[in-house]
Design a protein that fits this description.
CATH class of chain A: Mainly Alpha
Largest interface: A-D, 50 and 50 residues
Oligomer: heterotetramer
CATH class of the largest domain in chain B: Alpha Beta
Largest sheet of chain A: 2 strands, antiparallel
Chains: A mainly alpha (313), B alpha/beta (493), C alpha/beta (315)
CATH topology of the largest domain in chain B: Rossmann fold
CATH topology of chain A: ABC transporter involved in vitamin B12 uptake, BtuC
Largest sheet of chain B: 6 strands, mixed
Number of helices of chain B: 17
Structural class of chain B: alpha/beta
Number of domains of chain B: 2
Number of strands of chain A: 2
CATH architecture of the largest domain in chain B: 3-Layer(aba) Sandwich
Number of domains of chain A: 1
Distance between the termini of chain A: 29 Å
Bound molecules: adenosine-5'-triphosphate, magnesium ion
Strand order of the largest sheet of chain B: 6-9-10-3-11-12
Number of strands of chain B: 24
CATH architecture of chain A: Orthogonal Bundle
Shape of chain B: globular
CATH superfamily of the largest domain in chain B: P-loop containing nucleotide triphosphate hydrolases
Radius of gyration of chain A: 19 Å
Strand content of chain A: under 5%
Number of helices of chain A: 16
Distance between the termini of chain B: 51 Å
Helix content of chain A: over 70%
Radius of gyration of chain B: 23 Å
């Protein structure tokens, strides 16, 4: 039953060689290093996947409609620095909520320009990347250290063995999975990416659904920014450069098509974990930074090549 | 029930509807006929809210309506099957049929119920044999068309508009469609039916309205008129004879196969097409004709058997090699594999012959332009301007551009898959004459068609496929519709 | 350790050949270009702001550009400034090693240029003011070695990449002291990218592999602040102490608090900016200034932090 | 005649509001600042457009086929540092040629993976971005200063009032325009982006044409890297980060569609000049750095909004 549903999601976690690649990586990691299977390292892996995870999930929504959101890295910075800055005067939950709301607002503007004015998503969100980064600096040129220790809770604490942030990510992924597979809006979003005109002719309000995806992306980027500021304990206006590339990579490694209409929550999760795993392993093996970069690229290509046969002809 | 007054529409300054006045009532089947580019699809797009009219009023049940969006039209019970397929390829049949209206339980989509409802809809429309879970892109064009029809039936329509639904349907499937239309008519639904197949129109319609150059040219009942008359109204000229007289002696074999097999598609196909010959291929949906054509053209691999060109066994690896050997292939899906919609008529027409236009390393655009204009003249492509994006042409004219592309490549063997889909009668006559002339000069033609009269009338002999096998080879002079149908469903001796 | 006379620009004498600025009431007024290689880090923002403020206080016009870390853009920016007829230029090189084309263009115009922070390896410059990064590293190394008493395990977090010689020099400084003192060094394979979140990530990875660290040295304070958080999250604040470089406000606050953030070397943006501005004005006034000036970088520990800590400082 | 041809290119320079936006910008710039219309500034503008121009042109080829090349920034670094490094031992033209050849090689690998193995261009070139950047560092961690003054010629000198590099860019754009509008391969490349299957069935070797576009992109990125190193007078392995975003932006502002099949050489040229103009003006107006970023994004959106009506509905 659940397997059937996962199949409906055309998940890549279920599909052969992607899982094989994963398992091989894990076995190699566990047997050849002492530190991989330690609690500390597993916790690190979980923590280090939080930002990419949230961003990739929002990106997935946008990509499904055939769009793209390059502004997420800047939104991370803006949301984080606003939350940290406001926490000096406001209750922490409110300050954080305002930070996230700033992310939603950014998403709203992006979404309006793309959905109603039909501008190309790439240019709109690239312009947003620049503008929002500028706004983060305008808000505060220098890093902001939240004074109240409570600010650190969401990014630092654990419930049992699980970091709070990781639990949030898991919850958000579960929600997104239900949203995309079991709600009308979710299905419409996927359909829009497949054939926008067909969906319009079926009487669906296409612009509204597209708008929603950008707002979700903005929301998750805002959330990621707040959690990151909380985790680092300091909010920097410079944080988040090139985060969008990682997020997009996670989606695409997970089987999403940038043309829209194809992509899955579980696949994206796989992509996120895989990326974190590659970084983690290269560090554990003490591969030097430049060679890390060389190898990371090669591994990504290898993984994509390995699972090629299943989708592409 | 439906009333139009002075409806006008212009695309980027060029008016294509010049003031349409039109009435129709519930429980009526009104056929709309007209030449390619007359404005039929445009009128329909206005009625379903897909494009906005520039002027005029539309009233439903005596009340004026805006029809600002597809949703507004749907709310009035207006449902449409468009000329071009509008499915989401990667989604299942169920999702396509219930797009935007999936059944829910507790706020979430109830998939079992959705599949069940789709199955029920498909069987109501008579199109059984399509699995609701299959992704739409895996269906043949004909089955996709059935899904479109089921989709239009998803919520009880009060007015059903069908824009050339029959272009890809044949035999039983067409009968199913007619049965559906009749039952809707009995329920008081208004059906608007656009088709270039006039025999169908005479059979199903209560009234026939002819549109010519964006104006209503005539309206009559089938009793008052006949096919010839309608053609005259559409084309403004009388057509003496639709199919040319063919009395050719076939020459030597140009294309032949022995035991050609592609697993899951067709088996043991042995055929031959000779110089000066037009060979028809008839069969039901899914009988494997399209896949056979693709293999002949090396667009898809085959698993066993031999292909001969001019008597020599060849092993072609790509369409490029096939073209170099003098093959040409007009596919059945002009939107999916025939045309680059965003590009101009000229770019599309020149696509298969790019190396030919080279002079000093550059395209000789004068020569290219002259050749294309000449071909468009012969095929009567409208409008004649070659710089228009091909997507702005009417469906039938797009099809002519595909033909122009391949005729320009001066093939020795021309493979046609449903070549007259959406092409109006007058243009079809032009095409048949063109083929006739080319075969006189030694061309061989393999013509796949689901149109029985065409496959008999325009060919020298007809091959019939049934479930992937060639089951009959009948000289056209001896063929009749019953016989071919019987072969195609596997009941003839 | 800041400069003595911040308004020295107004004490003008005869002008240089190239100046086109008008005569003002309080002395000569100049149009000054402040070309930044990057404004992506607090330290460089601090330098730029200081030059801007000093300049405006003296009634000069200061044009600020930001190349966002792109050497070609820095060259372009310098060209843009020259096109606008500036009288002199300060280049805050940031992690940049050289921009000969920019310097040549300036030289062609015959106006003075002061490099601040980075000394360029190639190209002609008029004057340079900046820190001795290797010395700062050595200073930290001496502190660590003394504190550990000749044995222990120390992690090094680099900012990277290596075309940034600031980091290389700082790490070289630490290394030269500690390696001689019999202390085990662990250099993180990945870069902290000079930011707090990077420092945090690299430290987390270090902690997963090394249970027995005694201290960590980062090439700047930003990364130290992240590393400190990682150490705190791992519950090892008692075990591992931290040494940084820069004297960033947040780092000084931590040193003042008396936790495990124990030492940094002052590389003060304000001092640097003041010195650069002063030097440029000297040159514009026709003075014959020293070519290279090393701005001293005092060591800051709990003992002397109150002398340096200013909660309202820009950096 | 020429106007007709330009029109065929569906150029944006010819089409109304884009030109208007341009002219307005120019008039405002010329009248409100003293320095805009000076020789120095115009020369600067020309020089500053070189890198983006070359990269955008290569990107256009790739985008026309429906692909994307994210690796160009890294190729700039690799080609530059190789050319500078080799110039110590080899004749300068040869050293530069090898740098450019390295770019072509990168393009070849990208192209093979995309065209023959049918991997998603985004992932392939993102992986290449990482790997090639790593290789640039592996080649030399530290910046390389070419010793021979001849190395600086191509990026620094002028012929008459025109910088050599600008003349190269103009020549390359002219060639590209002829290639795309007047050769079979050019038309095929555009058609591939519109409908790959139709082009394949028309007897065009689609993979080979796609491969060629990536090699062109690699070639131009290599050339840009060499010219950049020559202009700056030093080659850094860190140069070129995020250059790909600017290049893509220029194409899209110039009317290209990331879905492929739409885009023009003249439009791209317009996009390149517009981007350079925005930067130049913001600097001339002495807008503060962060506000520059804010405004730059807003101006880009405004420009795209202004020319929207002509293409989109
Ligand atoms: N999007 C468009 N832009 C510009 N012109 C268009 C557009 N769509 C249709 N036209 C033009 O409008 C006219 C009417 O086209 P329409 O599609 O309504 O014809 P039709 O009667 O349905 O023809 P067919 O039988 O070939 O389907 C044609 O001349 C066509 O070129
Ligand atoms: N029920 C079905 N569901 C999905 N696919 C089907 C079904 N029936 C047939 N097909 C597909 O159709 C293919 C054969 O159809 P093909 O298009 O070659 O035949 P055709 O005679 O040209 O039919 P059409 O008139 O639809 O083009 C089969 O290989 C199969 O993939
Ligand atoms: Mg039509
Ligand atoms: Mg078929």
């Amino acid at each position: 039953m659940i397997v059937q549903r996962l199949r409906d999601d055309r998940s890549l976690l279920i599909n052969g060689s992607f899982v094989v690649a994963f398992v091989v990586l894990l076995i190699v990691a566990a047997t050849t290093t002492d530190s991989f299977m330690t609690d500390d390292n597993i916790t690190n892996l979980m923590k280090q996947s939080v930002t990419t995870g949230l961003l990739a999930l929002g990106m997935l929504m946008v990509i499904l409609t055939g769009g793209i959101d390059l502004s997420v890295g800047s939104v991370v910075a803006l949301a984080g620095i606003m939350a940290a800055g406001l926490s000096a005067d406001l209750p922490i939950p409110l300050a954080m909520a305002i930070g996230v709301a700033a992310g939603v607002a950014c998403g709203f503007v992006n979404g309006m320009l793309v959905a109603r004015f039909r501008l190309a998503p790439f240019v709109v969100t690239l312009a947003a990347l620049t503008t929002i980064r500028g706004l983060a600096y305008v808000y505060s040129e220098t890093p902001v250290t939240p004074t109240d220790i409570g600010f650190l809770w969401i990014g630092t604490e654990s419930i049992g063995p699980f970091p709070v942030a990781t639990l949030i990510v898991v919850a958000v992924f579960a929600l997104a999975w239900v949203f995309l597979t079991r709600t009308g809006a979710g299905r419409a979003i996927i359909a829009i990416g497949g054939n926008r005109e067909a969906v319009r002719l079926a009487g669906v309000n296409v612009p509204r659904h597209i708008l929603v995806t950008y707002m979700i992306s903005g929301f998750l980027a805002g959330l990621a920014g707040v959690i990151l500021a909380s985790r680092v304990g300091i909010a920097q206006p410079s944080v988040g450069v090139a985060f969008e590339l990682n997020a997009i990579a996670a989606c695409v490694i997970g089987g999403a098509s940038l043309a829209g209409g194809r992509g899955s929550v579980l696949g994206t999760l796989g992509g996120v974990v895989l990326l974190a795993l590659i970084d983690n392993l290269l560090t554990l093996y003490d591969v030097q930074s430049y060679w890390q970069q060389v190898l990371k690229g090669l591994i990504i290509v290898a993984v994509v090549l390995a699972r090629r046969t299943e989708d592409e002809r | 029930m439906l009333s139009l007054r002075g409806v006008r529409k212009a695309y980027s300054g060029v008016e294509v509807l010049h003031g349409i006045d039109f009435e129709a009532h519930g429980g009526e089947v009104v056929a709309i006929a007209g030449a390619n580019g007359a404005g039929k699809s445009t009128l329909i797009k206005i009625l379903c809210g897909a494009v906005a009219r520039d002027a005029g009023t539309i009233a439903v049940d005596g009340r004026e309506v805006a029809l600002g969006s597809p949703a507004a039209a749907a709310a009035l019970g207006i449902r449409t099957v468009h000329q071009e397929l509008t499915l989401v390829p990667q989604l299942s049949v169920t999702e396509n049929v219930l797009l935007g209206d999936l059944p829910k339980r507790g706020g979430l989509v109830d998939w079992p119920a959705a599949h069940e409802r789709t199955r029920a809809l498909l069987s109501r429309t008579g199109f059984t044999g399509v699995d609701p879970r299959t992704p739409a892109k895996r269906l043949s064009v004909a089955r996709q068309q059935m899904v479109e029809i089921a989709k239009a039936m998803a919520s009880e329509p009060r007015m059903l508009i069908l824009d050339e639904p029959s272009a890809v349907l044949a035999g039983d499937d067409l009968d199913q469609l007619f049965a559906l239309i009749r039952s809707l008519r009995a329920d008081g639904v208004l059906v608007l039916y656009v088709s270039h197949r006039l025999d169908e129109v005479m059979e199903i319609a209560d009234r026939i309205t002819v549109i010519k150059d964006g104006l209503i040219a005539a309206t009559s009942t089938p009793r008052e008129t006949n096919e010839e008359e309608i053609v005259r109204q559409m084309a403004g000229r009388r057509l003496e004879q639709i199919y040319p007289d063919r009395r050719e002696k076939p020459g030597r074999e140009l294309l032949g196969t022995t035991g050609l097999t592609r697993e899951g598609a067709f088996e043991e196909v042995s055929l031959s097409v000779c110089a000066g010959e037009v060979v028809g291929v008839f069969g039901l949906v899914g009988s494997g004709r399209t896949e056979l054509a693709e293999c002949l053209f090396a667009a898809a691999p085959h698993d066993a058997g031999e292909i001969r060109l001019a008597g020599r066994a060849v092993r072609l690896r790509s369409p490029k090699e096939a073209i170099a050997q003098g093959l040409a292939f007009v596919t059945e899906d002009r939107k999916g594999s025939g045309l680059v919609l965003d590009l101009s008529v000229r770019d599309n027409a020149a696509l298969a012959t790019l190396p030919r236009w080279r002079r000093h390393g550059l395209l000789d655009r004068k020569r290219q332009q002259a050749a294309i204009e000449d071909m468009n003249e012969r095929l009567d492509v409208r409008p004649r301007t070659t710089s228009k994006p091909v997507k702005q042409l009417s469906g039938g004219n797009q099809q002519k551009v595909v033909l122009a592309k391949w005729l320009l490549s001066r093939p020795k063997v021309l493979i046609l898959d449903e070549p007259t889909r959406g092409v109006d009668v007058a243009a079809r006559v032009d095409l048949y004459r063109e083929i006739d002339q080319l075969t006189r000069a030694g061309l061989g033609v393999l013509m796949i068609s689901s149109d029985l009269t065409e496959v008999i009338g325009a060919t020298d002999r007809v091959l019939v496929m049934h479930e992937g096998r060639l089951v009959a080879d009948v000289p056209s002079a001896e063929a009749d519709e019953e016989l071919l149908l019987a072969h195609s469903i596997g009941v003839a001796a | 350790g800041s400069s003595d006379d911040k308004d020295s620009g107004s004490s003008g004498s005869s002008g240089t050949a190239s100046t086109t600025a008008s005569e003002g009431s309080g002395g000569r007024r100049f149009k000054i270009g402040m070309a930044n290689f990057t404004l992506g880090a607090p330290y460089f923002i601090g330098i730029s702001k200081t030059v801007e403020r000093d300049g405006q206080r003296a009634g000069n016009e200061v044009l600020v550009t930001d190349a966002k870390g792109d050497a070609a853009a820095l060259t372009s920016n310098v060209e843009d400034l020259l096109a606008q007829g500036v009288d002199g230029i300060v280049i805050s090189g940031g992690p940049l090693e050289a921009a000969p084309a920019a310097l040549n263009a300036i030289k062609q115009k015959g106006i003075p240029v002061v490099l601040v922070d980075r000394k360029f390896q190639s190209g002609d410059y008029t004057s340079w003011v900046g820190p001795d990064n290797e010395a700062i590293g050595r200073q930290d190394g001496e502190y660590i070695s003394e504190r550990l008493g000749g044995s222990g395990k120390v992690a090094i977090i680099r900012g990277g990449p290596a075309d940034n010689s600031i980091g290389l020099a700082r790490t070289e400084g630490v290394r030269s002291v500690l390696e001689g003192a019999g202390i085990e060094l662990v250099v993180a394979p990945d870069f902290g990218e000079w930011s707090s979140d990077g420092g945090l990530r690299v430290m987390e990875n270090l902690l997963a592999k090394n249970k027995d660290l005694d201290a960590v040295f980062c090439e700047n304070d930003s990364m130290c602040l992240g590393a400190q958080k990682a150490i705190r999250d791992a519950g090892k604040s008692e075990q591992i102490f931290i040494a940084g470089v820069d004297g960033q406000k947040e780092a000084l606050a931590e040193i003042r608090r008396g936790g495990n953030y124990e030492v940094t070397g002052l590389n003060d943006a304000v001092t640097m900016g003041d010195a650069a501005f002063e030097r440029l004005i000297e040159l514009l006034d026709g003075g014959q200034a020293e070519k290279d000036t090393v701005v001293p970088s005092p060591q800051i520990t709990r003992a002397n932090v109150d002398d340096y800590y200013d909660p309202n400082s820009e950096f």
